[in-house]
Amino acid sequence: MKVKTIGSTIMIVAGIDDVRTREHQLSGIIDASIRIKNTVFQELNLPDLEYRIGIHSGPCFGAILGGNGAMFDLFGDTVNTASRMMTTAQNRSIHMSAAAHSILPPELASVVEARQPIMMKGKGKMLVFAVMDNGNGQVNEQHPSGLPPTPTTHQTT
């Protein structure tokens, strides 16, 4: 996995050097996105915090840039499309491309909703899917990512 910050944006990439299936990698990214949305943003109780998450699947390439302060970075249309998914999402939502949706494992079909096609800069109209959760901050209890379920907080009145 690669994590990179770009200004106020965080890019997380899965499966660069992983032998797991693309479906398994996508499951992990969806699970991580929902956990970030529900755990980090909601439990911190920051009502003015704006965030958007974009998910796409496809090829990319990496390169080491620089001399003394060398840095590894990723490039390609996949990175650009994921960025477009993020920038066109509504505040506090997760967008997924049709390419990512096409490899969605059947057990996760219930956590996505098709949206109207959206005009994407440099791409034209693209079909977009909104990623939801099951109401308790998880995709499902026995998630294929192998991560333990996220604890949920319940308030009683």
Which shape, going by the Cα principal axes? globular
The chain-level mean pLDDT equals 76
Helix content percent band? 10-25%
Helix count, DSSP H or I runs of 4 or more residues: 3
Largest β sheet strand count, sense and barrel closure = 4 strands, mixed
The helix/strand order is EEHEEEHEHEEEE
Structural class per helix/strand content? alpha+beta
Quantity of strands, as a count: 10
Radius of gyration: 16 Å
State the low-pLDDT regions, or none: 140-157
First and last CA, distance: 41 Å
Strand content: 25-35%
What does it look like?
By secondary structure, the protein is of the alpha+beta class. Helix content is 24%, strand content 27%. It contains three helices and ten strands. The strands form four sheets. It has a four-stranded mixed beta sheet, with helices on both faces. A two-stranded antiparallel sheet has the order 1-2. The protein is globular.
Summarize the structure in short.
By secondary structure, the chain is an alpha+beta fold. Helix content is 24%, strand content 27%. A four-stranded mixed sheet has the order 3-6-10-7, sandwiched between helices.
Key traits:
two-stranded antiparallel sheet; 10 strands; alpha+beta; 157 residues; globular; four-stranded mixed sheet; disordered C terminus
